[in-house]
Each structure stands twice: as C-alpha cells, then as structure tokens.
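Fold this complex.
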Amino acid sequence: MVTETAQSKRPIRWHIAVFLAPAVLIYTAVMILPLFGTLQLSLYKTIDGVRQFVGLDNFRTLFGDPRWSASFWNALGNNLWFFVIHMLVQNPIGIALAAILSHPRLRFAAFYRTAIFVPTVLSFVVVGFIWKLILSPLWGVAPWMMGLVGLKSWFTPWLGKEEYALTALGLISVWQFVGIPMMLIYAALLSIPDEVIEAAEIDGITGASQFWKIKLPLILPSIGIISILTFVGNFNAFDLIYSAQGAMAGPNYSTDILGTFLYRTFFGFQLQLGDPNMGATIASMMFFIILAGVCVYLFAIQTRLRRYQF
Amino acid sequence: MSKATSSPVRSVAAHAVLITYTVIALFPVFLIVINSFKSRNSIFRSPLSLPGPETFDPIGYTTVLKQGDFFLYFQNSLIVTVVSLFLVLLFGAMAAFALSEYRFKGNTMMGLYLALGIMIPIRLGTVAILQLMVASGLVNTLTALILVYTAQGLPLAVFILAEFMKQVSDDLKNAGRIDGLSEYRIFFRLVLPLVRPAMATVAVFTMIPIWNDLWFPLILAPSEATKTVTLGAQIFIGQYVTNWNAVLAALSLAILPVLVLYVIFSRQLIRGITSGAVK
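Structure:
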C-alpha cells in the first residue's frame, strides 16, 4: 500500500500530532477529566468532614428515599414533557419554515431568515424576562392581545399555574430555538442538487408532493441530527427555567427539570445546604440518560437512515 | 420547466406564513424595546404605542447606567466570546483536518473520543471544573471562561468540519504536495479557505451558547470585574424587579448589542450556508 512506503520514509508523522494536540489537550483537561471526576464524586460521601467511599449508596438514596425519588421522577417526567413539546412543535415548524424559505424564487428570503433567527441569539435571561413581562397579568399585554381575537376569557397567568407553567415554558423555549432546525434543514434542502429537482419536475412531481416524496427522504439524516441535538439540549436545559421561575422551579416544583434539580441539590437552596456528592449523583444519572438516548440514536436510528451522496 | 411552483396563490400563502412567523418572532422584542423608552404610566396605560413626545422618558436607561457597569460587562462578554470562538475554530479545524486527512492508528477512536463531547454537556463536570480552576488560580478570570468554552465548542466543531473536509478534493491536496507544500501549508492555504462556509456555520452555532451562558460566569467568574452581560443583566434585573423602567431598559441594553453582532454575522452565515450548498 501507499501508506506503507510513506511510513517508511516518515516513521513518525509529527504533523498529525501537531494538528491534534491543542484540541485534544484542552478537551481532555477541561471536559473529560472533570466529567470523570464528577462520576467519581457520586461514589463518595462526606461524613463529619471526611470524604469516604460509599459505593452506590448515593444512588440508593436517590431511588430509595421517598423524598429524593419523588423529586427525581418529577424532574424526569417534566423533562420528558419538555422534550416532547420540542419534538412536536419546534421541529415541525422549523422544517415547514425551511421548506417555504428554500423555494428558489421566494422574495425577501434573506429578511425572513434573519428575522426568524433573532430570538435564538438572545440570551435565556432576556427571553425568560421578556415572556415573564408579557404574560404578566400586571402588565396586561397578553390578555389585551387575546381580546383582539375574542379569546380574552381564556387568559390566565400561565407561568403561575401548576398545570400550565411547564407547557408555557416549553413553548417559550420553542419560540427561542425554532431558528436552529430551520437553519439546518434549510442548508440541507439547498444542498439537494438541481438535477434531482428537475428530474422530479419532468416527471410531474411538484409542490407539496415534491416535498414529501423527494426532498423529505433526502433530508431525513438532518432531521435525525436535529432530534438528537434537541434531546441532548433539553435534558441539559437549566437557564430558561432558572431565569423565569428561579431555582425553586415553581409553582410547587411543577417546572422542575433535571438541570434545576441538579442545581438545587448541588448548591443548596433556602435552608438546605448544598451537597456536592448528591449533586454528582444526579449529574451521573443525567449522563446515563443522555448516553442512553444517544446510543438509541446511533444504533437504532442513524444506521437505518440512508445517506445519499451526490 | 414546470412553473406550477411559482403560482401567485402559492407565493402569497408562503409570504403570509412567513410574515406571521416573523411577527411572532420579533414582536416580543419590539415590545420590550419601545416600552423601555416610555414613562412608567404609559408603559401600563398603552403598552403597544410607540414612545411619543409626551410619553418619552429615558429614566430606565439613566438608572441602569448609574447602577451597573454595562460597558465593562459588554467588553468582558466580547473578549470571552471572540477569543473562545477563535480557539474553537483554529484548534477544531486542525483536529478535523488530522482526522479526515490522515490514516493513522487510533484515528476512529480519536474521532469517537472527541465526538463524546457533543452528547455530554460540559456542565455535568462543573464540580471538578471549579476545583481545577481554584487549584490553578483562575477563578474570577476571563481565562477560566475561555478555557471552558473552548472545550465546550470543540467537539461539534471537529465533527462538522471533518465532514466538510472529507469533501475537499484529494487531487487538489496531492497537487499541492507535488508542488512541495508542507502539510501545514496545505491545511492553511488550501483546505481552510475551502471550508470557510462550514466555519461560518460552526462559528454561529458556537458563539450563541457562549454569549448566552449564565451558568459558568455565575460559578467561575462572578466578580464585578469579570461579569458578562448575561450575568450582569440577570443580577441587575433580580435587584430591580419592581422598577419596570429599569428592567425594560436593562433588557433592551442586553438585546441591542447582540442584534448588531448578529446582523453583521448573519450575512456571513447565510452566504456560508448558500455557497456551501451550491459550491
């Protein structure tokens, strides 16, 4: 083989090491080692100021102690609902917008693209407070606007009601992040070669059926990537809930997701002291959940998606 | 060619959908910005009207500028974001080139190792990161944030850029080798310019979470001198919850610089996406 001769000429190809070294060093030191440090911390407990190895005791507490396990399952359930909202609302809207935008003769496409992506560049703090103000019954903007379409009686302070708060926050997050699936799908749609589209048009496949039969199968890998990015993003979410509802994830923990649960446990809240070891235990559980989701994607979904090379 | 896809009805419908969504996306931001210039009374009495001569009142802004050092916060955010972005793009592209160009022992393993970070949020390692920064004396420095954000951004950058670099023609690189270019020159002179569109995309997706992050500034660099805009706004708003003028002004001040940055970058992003697709 060619590499054989090349290797005998250059026994060590230093440039490979030079190219890899900076990225691998920073990544290992600041990300991988601390991550394992955290997994390790979950196996220890500080008793009377002495750190002791306790095996899986912390996990036993998390699942066995009714107080801990209730909070954990509540947070996990809320997190799942948060994810479902994104999959059902954010991604279909993103795909639909991208499909409309990618039309070759659409005017002002650049303007729409830029405008719809604006909320995505705002920080969680800004988004959380903007919607808190708008949905506030004190200001009255939301009820007034619903009055315009005759739905004023439907208004209720959503963020303050246990049964609606999580859904409201999910939709706020969708509002913020719809630009990401839109941009990724838009790029995927633009990369479909003209010949494929022309061939379809010659065969009389146009408009909506062209989208469903030709374009959608071609962008399925991008949709897969978006789904897994959404999954990881949602199970790691924290900032929006923290900005809008505070660390207590009110009302009555109805918006508590794994991120806020971890934060409260790790740093403590009100009278309870922070517990790094239990925090690390929750972080480890988040790690395993995310790992499981990613494995499902890699082995069950991605291998079945056909990739087309043009 | 069939012109069925450009019928006027379809085009009007497309514009109607897009305009509706644009309004949904922009209206809340617009509402906050116009009300930040109004007096307290008119914020509540007519939230939807533009600030007029009678209702104009910059009291919110004067309060914010008196209380918080937003210029410094902005400068901190800018330094952290730009330096991290530069490091992510440079180191990420270098690693992506090594992985996509050379066959060597452990190539696949290295790719998987670097890809791990796409799915594992760096936040889960916060406790140990804090210990590391305390040990190395980097707490309350921008360097700590830059290191964390570089590590956070690298995996996705390597992954995306490697995909793109696989598409760069081998003939071109081999021609360069025959002409006697070193591997470094091939990377910087031939490959980097060709993947610039992908770099723009990676840049935008890397920049947003860095600029918006609240978690790490809060934990690693909460001092007055190193506060970022996001953290500064969060703390300020928390203290002035009932002062609507100040809250609206602080929000607007946090929004406007980002919007300006975004408008500058979005040209590059859109050009990047489209030219990447058309090639």
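The first strand of chain A starts at residue 44 and ends at 47.
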